[in-house]
């Protein structure tokens, strides 16, 4: 669609006219033009690095374009800050949730100008009352005065959405809003958004890598690829394959299960593992070269089990052995020495070190292997980093680039490379493809299968059924802190997993 055609579309809420933006060594957006109609749910899709986050940042006033402009309700606007965008009725909920973990839920809801009493003091009673009403909307069983940091990622995400909706915006941007939500929470959110849209004519820009969600909720879909606008299609006339091909320029193999090698000897043995009321009498074993999935609904204990195996949280009973060494991990350092590695579901807070470079993030665990007498061997480090950047197809202008400037998918590839560089025996992956595009997701799946064929033992914790069914040799299912069943790859189905997950 041309800029001239956009100008004639008087039903548009937001119009992008020739938006371009570059960063050192990267052309993030190039001449992007399309419109979002009033009252519609408009999906924006594209691989990591396609320019989605940059466009969102420009739309909410966090960045300014090098070229082009935005029109709101037919009038050209220039945002100098996020406050300018908010004054135009635009609210944004980012994928990496910007919260204050040491503050209460109510304080996070009312970040910024807060209500005052007539005497000029913070009106805590009003804040708590309003927050309690908001929590009831999403049936979140938390109190306004609870500290935000103790909440789950899913609860934090829902509260950020509630915070944005409290301002009653005309145009809401949601960036990967369901990446940490359960199926039930996602369905609740979709019903809520549909209700608000009908009641208030809310316009929504919905950004997600989960293609099935796009078809479930959106009216139209716009696609970006390598900073270019590829096109907009009406959702009812599109299909999964056509959207994916617009995004990546090729067909993606959804079924990557190609394991042919026979698993070897037992590498991991967990015996009667317990942790208070969270984990209860858990026992299982894993063989060399196996990918074992861990399924379950929100709160089943999957992440807690991964953290216990990696020594993040202490255990109250049982033991863990790796390669015959029957010693439960006392802490993370001890777990690493045992040959255990873990990719956390919380990439922002527990995965990357934002202010450090790609180079430093990648060698964070294995730097001792690239040192002699306590002195780092620069040449060896550079060779290792370059090898993994090439192997993992990490899109980066330079190894010295800050990791927080990379897309989520490329950040995840750096984290995976970090652990592989340390030659682990047992890799725990907790939601490794959360918030990652279909192309990068396919690459990570293929990588895990290849690593397993080479002898690495992998525990894959995932809330995505297709992911578990596509690459796992076996699937363990958890409910209420216990393992309630095990399914082989051949017998596993979504229905059987859900039965065990609700047992």
Strand numbers in spatial order across the main sheet: 6-7-8-3-9-10
CATH topology of the largest domain, by name, is Rossmann fold
- Detail the poorly predicted runs: 1-10
**E-strand count:** 22
How many helical stretches?
A: 18
Number of domains: 3
Supply the CATH superfamily name of the largest domain: P-loop containing nucleotide triphosphate hydrolases
- The averaged pLDDT comes out at 86
CATH architecture of the largest domain: 3-Layer(aba) Sandwich
Shape, per Cα inertia axes: globular
**Protein structure class:** alpha/beta
Largest sheet: 6 strands, mixed
Measured as a percent range, the helix fraction is 25-40%
Tell me the distance between the termini: 52 Å
Topology:
Layout: H1 3-8, E1 12-23, E2 26-37, E3 41-45, H2 52-59, E4 67-72, E5 75-77, H3 82-87, E6 90-93, H4 105-109, H5 124-137, H6 153-166, E7 171-175, H7 183-200, E8 203-207, H8 211-217, E9 220-225, E10 228-234, H9 240-248, E11 266-275, E12 279-287, E13 291-295, H10 302-309, E14 317-322, E15 325-326, H11 332-337, E16 340-343, H12 347-350, H13 358-362, E17 371-372, E18 375-376, H14 378-391, H15 408-420, E19 426-430, H16 438-453, E20 457-461, H17 465-471, E21 474-479, E22 482-488, H18 494-501
Parallel strand pairs: 3-8, 3-9, 6-7, 7-8, 13-20, 13-21, 16-19, 19-20
Antiparallel strand pairs: 1-2, 1-4, 4-5, 9-10, 11-12, 11-14, 14-15, 17-18, 21-22
């Amino acid at each position: 669609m041309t800029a001239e055609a956009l100008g004639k579309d008087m039903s548009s809420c937001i119009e992008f006219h020739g938006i371009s933006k570059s960063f050192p060594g990267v052309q993030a957006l190039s001449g992007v033009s399309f419109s979002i109609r009033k009252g519609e749910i408009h999906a924006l899709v594209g691989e990591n690095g396609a320019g989605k986050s940059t466009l969102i940042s420009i739309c909410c006033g966090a960045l300014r374009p090098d070229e082009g402009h935005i029109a709101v309700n037919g009038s050209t606007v220039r945002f100098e800050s996020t406050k300018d965008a908010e004054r135009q009725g635009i609210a944004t909920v980012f994928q990496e949730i910007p919260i204050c973990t040491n503050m209460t839920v109510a304080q996070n809801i009312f970040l910024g100008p807060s209500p005052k009493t007539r005497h000029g003091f913070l009106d805590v009673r009003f804040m708590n009352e309003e927050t309690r009403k908001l929590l009831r909307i999403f049936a979140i069983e938390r109190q306004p005065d609870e500290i935000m940091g103790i909440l789950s990622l899913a609860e934090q995400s829902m509260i950020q959405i509630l915070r944005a909706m409290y301002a009653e915006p005309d145009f809401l941007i949601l960036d990967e809003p369901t990446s940490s939500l359960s199926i039930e929470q996602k369905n609740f959110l979709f019903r809520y958004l549909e209700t608000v849209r009908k009641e208030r004519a809310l316009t929504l820009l919905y950004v997600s890598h989960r293609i099935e969600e796009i078809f479930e909720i959106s009216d139209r879909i716009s696609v970006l690829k390598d900073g270019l606008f590829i096109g907009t299609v009406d959702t009812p006339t599109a299909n999964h394959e056509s959207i994916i091909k617009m995004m990546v320029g090729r067909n993606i193999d959804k079924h990557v299960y190609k394991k042919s090698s026979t698993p070897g000897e037992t590498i991991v043995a967990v015996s009667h593992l317990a942790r208070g009321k969270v984990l209860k009498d858990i026992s299982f074993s894993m063989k060399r070269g196996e990918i074992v999935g861990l399924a379950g609904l929100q709160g089943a204990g999957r992440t807690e089990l991964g953290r216990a195996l990696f020594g993040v949280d202490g255990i109250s009973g049982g033991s863990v052995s790796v390669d015959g060494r029957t010693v439960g991990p006392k802490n993370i350092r001890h777990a690493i020495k045992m040959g255990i590695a873990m990719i956390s579901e919380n990439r922002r807070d527990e995965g990357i070190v934002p202010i450090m470079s790609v180079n430093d993030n990648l060698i964070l665990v294995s730097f001792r292997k690239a040192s002699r007498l306590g002195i780092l061997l620069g040449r060896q480090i550079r060779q290792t980093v370059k090898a993994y950047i090439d192997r993992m197809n990490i899109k980066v202008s330079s190894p010295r680039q800050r990791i927080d400037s990379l897309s989520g998918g490329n950040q995840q590839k750096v984290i995976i490379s970090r652990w592989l560089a340390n030659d682990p025996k047992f890799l725990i992956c907790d939601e490794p493809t959360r918030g990652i595009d279909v192309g990068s997701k396919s690459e990570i799946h293929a990588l895990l299968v290849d690593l397993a064929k080479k002898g690495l033992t992998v525990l894959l914790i995932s809330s995505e059924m297709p992911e578990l069914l596509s690459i796992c040799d076996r699937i363990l299912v958890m409910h209420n802190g216990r393992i309630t069943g095990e399914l082989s790859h051949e017998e596993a189905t979504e229905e059987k997993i859900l039965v065990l997950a609700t047992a």
